[in-house]
Amino acid sequence: MEIRIELTKTPKEKPVPGQKLGFGRLFSDHMFIMNYKTGKGWYDPRIVPYGDLSLSPAALCLHYGQTVFEGMKAYYGEKGDILLFRPDENFSRLNSSNRRLAIPQIDEELCIRGVKELVEIDKDWVPREDGASLYIRPFIISTDPVLGVHPGDEYLFIIITSPSGAYYESGLEPVKIYVESKYVRAVRGGTGMAKTGGNYAASLLAQDEAHQQNYSQVLWLDGVEQKYIEEVGAMNVFFVLDGEVVTPELHGSILPGITRKSSIQLLKDWGLKVSERRITIEELDRANDQGRVLEAFGTGTAAVISPIGELKWGEKQMVFNGGKIGSLTQRLYDTLTGIQYGRLPDPHGWSVTVCKG
Ligand SMILES: *Cc1c(COP(=O)(O)O)cnc(C)c1O
Predict the structure, then answer these.
(1) Which residue, by CA, sits nearest to atom 14 of ligand 1?
(2) Closest Cα partner for 85 from 262, 298, 234?
(3) 65-90: average pLDDT
(4) Domain boundaries defined on the chain
(5) How far apart are CA 66 and CA 101, in angstroms?
(6) Superfamily of domain 175-325
(7) pLDDT at 172
(8) 4-164: which CATH number, 3.90.1300.10, 3.30.470.10, 3.50.50.60, 3.30.420.10?
(9) C-alpha 123 – ligand 1 centre gap (Å)
(10) What is the pLDDT of residues 267-288, one digit of tens each?
């Protein structure tokens, strides 16, 4: 399918070097859009000026949350190239979210082409500061103007991009996380493995309550017994025990992170034993009391690797590695960001070049 291109006649001011970008607040000049109608399939892929959508107030997505999304980044590389990190993984996960939300499958190859063309057209929006990137947000919404509860017959697939600042402004900093034991995020058979809006809506109250107690995020336990560790708000979690690196196994209620998958690969490359298995918060606490938890960290596109300095579980405060960044955590961060920005060799071919700078 041909991607139609309509360039803006009124380009916006681009951020100036040194300007504070924050996250997801500025948007580039263009966006990718494609429509779907039952019987017709996906049609009219196009890159057009960034702008508001026109939707019926009855649009399905607004009422019943039939939405999915992805999150990825474009990086300004060492040699002036613009790079993506494993975009094929994002679109294959989008299709797996689609399956769960009864949204039609998209053509992954077309999406990769779309994101590459969009980023190339808006390449001047890719920030060049250390650690900054162009955040890319593909998403799908159902748009049928019908209030009956049913899977949509009409959809929009859209990609918008947002120049965003470095997650850590002054180097990696350990975060303090609240172990949630009142609310749950997901259960097996639910939508936990899909990147869909409802999961985040359901997590906001817990996040807000954790913030009020000065914890930056929530660690979710399993939705049935609230015993097993699942994941943090938008990050998967890893614990370095003596002798093995443990991360909760994927069994349907955890989001299968691409940073998680990449981290497991690197840890195995380095000869470490990685166990994807169930781990209870009690087991972690006991191991930590015995001094056997050497490091803890989260993985996700936004922060890449986020050292966890402390977990608050009921009255218990678990501090890892004296609240400091562990050496394996630092090595993973340096290696992943090194590959993403084209500074290090890329033995698995994860980095995809969009264009020369
Ligand atoms: C996006 C997300 C992650 C991290 O996935 P990456 O592909 O590594 O960015 C983890 N957990 C949740 C709930 C997420 O939404």
Answers:
(1) 234
(2) 262
(3) 97
(4) 4-164, 175-325
(5) 6
(6) D-amino Acid Aminotransferase, subunit A, domain 2 (3.20.10.10)
(7) 85
(8) 3.30.470.10
(9) 25
(10) 999 999 999 999 999 999 999 9
Q: Whose CA is nearest to atom 15 of ligand 1?
A: 234
Q: Which of 277, 100, 251 is nearest to 187 (CA)?
A: 251
Strand (E) positions, 86-144?
133-142
Tell me if the pTM is above 0.85: yes
Query: And the tokens for 25?
Result: 């607040």
pLDDT in tens, 178-189: 999 999 999 989
Q: From residue 273, how far is each of 237, 254, 335 by CA, in Å?
A: 16, 21, 18
Q: Which residues pair with 310 in a beta bridge?
A: 176, 319
Query: What gap in Å lies between CA 248 and CA 304, rounded to an integer?
Result: 18
Q: Which helix (H) or strand (E) covers residue 260, if one does?
A: helix 258-269
* Distance of CA 8 from the midpoint of ligand 1 (Å): 32
Q: How far is the CA of 281 from the centre of ligand 1 (A)?
A: 21
Six-digit token pair at 311? 């977990």
CA 257 to centroid of ligand 1, rounded, Å: 5
Question: Which ligand 1 atom is the nearest neighbour of the CA of 90?
Answer: 7
CA 236 – ligand 1 centroid, Å: 7
Which amino acid residue places its CA nearest to atom 2 of ligand 1?
234
Average pLDDT for the chain: 96
Alpha carbon of 87 to those of 55, 110, 187, 340: distances in Å? 29, 12, 28, 12
φ, ψ at 32 (rounded to 5°): -100, 135
Q: What residue has token string 């892929």?
A: 45
